[in-house]
Amino acid sequence: MNEKELRAELATSIRLLEYMGLIDFSGHVSVRLPKEDTLLINSWGGSRCSLGPDDIVRAGMNGESLDPGKEVPSEIFIHTSIYRKRPDVQAISHLHPPITTALSIAGKPYVPVMHHGAIFGTGVPVHDNCGHVNSKAKGDVLAELLADHRALIMRGHGAVVVAESIRGVFFGSVYLEDNAAKLAEAWKMGEPIPLREDECAASAGIWRQNQFNKIWNYYQEKSGIYFQ
Amino acid sequence: MNEKELRAELATSIRLLEYMGLIDFSGHVSVRLPKEDTLLINSWGGSRCSLGPDDIVRAGMNGESLDPGKEVPSEIFIHTSIYRKRPDVQAISHLHPPITTALSIAGKPYVPVMHHGAIFGTGVPVHDNCGHVNSKAKGDVLAELLADHRALIMRGHGAVVVAESIRGVFFGSVYLEDNAAKLAEAWKMGEPIPLREDECAASAGIWRQNQFNKIWNYYQEKSGIYFQ
Amino acid sequence: MNEKELRAELATSIRLLEYMGLIDFSGHVSVRLPKEDTLLINSWGGSRCSLGPDDIVRAGMNGESLDPGKEVPSEIFIHTSIYRKRPDVQAISHLHPPITTALSIAGKPYVPVMHHGAIFGTGVPVHDNCGHVNSKAKGDVLAELLADHRALIMRGHGAVVVAESIRGVFFGSVYLEDNAAKLAEAWKMGEPIPLREDECAASAGIWRQNQFNKIWNYYQEKSGIYFQ
Amino acid sequence: MNEKELRAELATSIRLLEYMGLIDFSGHVSVRLPKEDTLLINSWGGSRCSLGPDDIVRAGMNGESLDPGKEVPSEIFIHTSIYRKRPDVQAISHLHPPITTALSIAGKPYVPVMHHGAIFGTGVPVHDNCGHVNSKAKGDVLAELLADHRALIMRGHGAVVVAESIRGVFFGSVYLEDNAAKLAEAWKMGEPIPLREDECAASAGIWRQNQFNKIWNYYQEKSGIYFQ
Asked: Out of A49, A130, A184, whose CB is closest to D195?
């Protein structure tokens, strides 16, 4: 994808996550520009329920806006710190997913209980601080905690999902909350049954491009959100 | 019904189940073609929120597509194994119903607690594996577990409902989740009161064509989903 | 109101209750015709999400349709038995309210916990049988159980609300479920605090015509449901 | 803002709170007129789902309507008592937020568990009476209980939020319920982890104008509610 396509893809992902109630009025998604030490991210002010490709900003790896007049989100350090530490990561979402967040407030560990939850089989660490990640130092703490996992939770605040593409991040974001929803329901009724290791191993293969595309297309059709 | 009518009926049932949040982006419904060793099912790729009669595929009882260029769902073996074992079954749904699935994760047995839940009075077995049913061998295990019941649950994954017609499957699918919803609510508050045997016996008669039609028509009117 | 106005009012109440998720595809509301031994009720077949004044049937006090070709609901005996026993009652709803019903399945007594719940301060009896009330004998059992109260619950099935007018029934129906919703939420978290007697006494005055009209008008505006 | 602008702002806030399910058919929001012993509030009869600037009434600090023919809400004393006691307060909402209210019925203290919940770090007192606040004496009791806090809860009834502007009240109203939602979810699963003092201190700075505007604009865009 060229930059124009990446901007459309990024704007679409944010609008879809907003449509699904996962990003709230202030979350963000970024993508690393190929072969450049630069990222694209939605601007601080662009409304998550109406933004488009023009609300995407170029930013440097120190969190500075490269587009004069366009402000980056104050928590951009979540993104820059992770991109520096994880060369495999090409896209990152910062979500405010209600049930995933409630689980962290209840002190319940995040475990896979659903078929699709197997993509989080290595674990989802919880950051024990609800505060804004508005500095490089705070970003580095998160990146350290994330280690090689696909997601982390910020107790009383939200979550972060990483992947090798925007659609991968979208897929991971949807199933982070979907698995959390069933996990939480089970805690309300009793004690959840986590996936066994053999189940996690057998289900890990759903992390693949044709699944990313299928669910992406489905939500585009439902929401009518398209750019270009 | 001729095949053209069955295709429209099948597409309608899938769209209605999607409208009601029971099938997600990847469930499927099938119907057996009268007097043929063949079934109709929605294609792998047809989006559940927009598909129509043209997205229906003919498939053989070994799970192979009979329509060149149209792919069957990878879990078609759920359908073929059950049709082989249950000559009384003419239609099958594979759902992803959120609350029914959550009950299985909480390890709570599925019991009838609602008037309409009586249609599941013989029990709803739970398959203790969340994995995809993507082979004949796995399909046969499910069919064995289903035995003579009207539904089964796949822990951490979804459910299967069978009936003598597409409208019967729709009716069963709706009430599988409706009964689960009340059952789960009760577990969250305390201990559910299951239907007594006399209540199940007295209520079993709601499994009949005019009830199937009434709820089918109601949801068609609400959703505006019609074909032909 | 003359009969034409009552038909419009009755159809409106059913459509509003359907809009609010309280009546499902098969509930009903009736009103007694002034100075006649006759009632108006929605027909068996009229779809609750689209019916109008023409789907209202005249019925006699033995539950028989007086309009040739129009069928009454099979549970009309809920209405006829109560009208016979309660001359003060002019209108009745038979609802399928999800949370009120779940409370009965959890075996939790219905108590007022909300300001508006005070209208049920004398208690809401629970019928310990989920079955259809499709005979005079069964209707009489319900009427006996209802006694002088404003509502009763049928475990695993639904509820009945009575009042001196259609708008009173609408008001009572909305607050039966609203109070149940808060009661159930509290049971999920701990132990609910019921209203004290002094609170019930002080709040009973909200059962009055200008409150009925205010909420009726509000939901008409929200839903856009108007007849005549 | 001049009075015309304040009327538009006030009407917008009520319509947005109604859109979000926080105010029901009978809540109200008021604003103090600068340099006058007068307030603006929505009228008793103006429907919360359709009202506009013309449904705003001028009232005196004894709760009397100053606009002949326009009635003030019967609970206006919530507003007048607080304005008299708290010169810093310029705007007040009286909400019916479902989860905040359910927490009070469950007897669970309101504590901050979310980043944004830190704005209620000094505590949210609970009034142990569900009744209408329809007299100066009752209003004064509430004002006394509120003391220097930003919100209070009326058990089994609703809540009150105060701020230095209408947008501040909107922001506080949204996050009162948002924090309550996560708090309640956690109680349903186990025991919530409240914010630590250091977290509350670090997060208190989100109470500021640019945050008020961002969420206000977001919900205006989502709902399409604009005046003038």
From this structure: A130
